[in-house]
Amino acid sequence: MVGVQSEKQRQQDFSASSPVPFIIAGIIFTLFFVLTLLLIVFWVLA
């Protein structure tokens, strides 16, 4: 999710009126990551 970009692009990204889209995306990606790890663990132990 974190990429190399110009300073101008970074400022444009973070000048959005609300941080809510970033928070929601963070929660979704975190849940996806944790669920993927759980599935891998259950698959290996099965």
UniProtKB/TrEMBL annotation:
<keyword id="KW-0812">Transmembrane</keyword>
<keyword id="KW-0472">Membrane</keyword>
<protein>
    <submittedName>
        <fullName>DUF2970 domain-containing protein</fullName>
    </submittedName>
</protein>
<dbReference type="InterPro" id="IPR021344">
    <property type="entry name" value="DUF2970"/>
</dbReference>
<feature type="transmembrane region" description="Helical">
    <location>
        <begin position="20"/>
        <end position="45"/>
    </location>
</feature>
<keyword id="KW-1133">Transmembrane helix</keyword>
<dbReference type="Pfam" id="PF11174">
    <property type="entry name" value="DUF2970"/>
</dbReference>
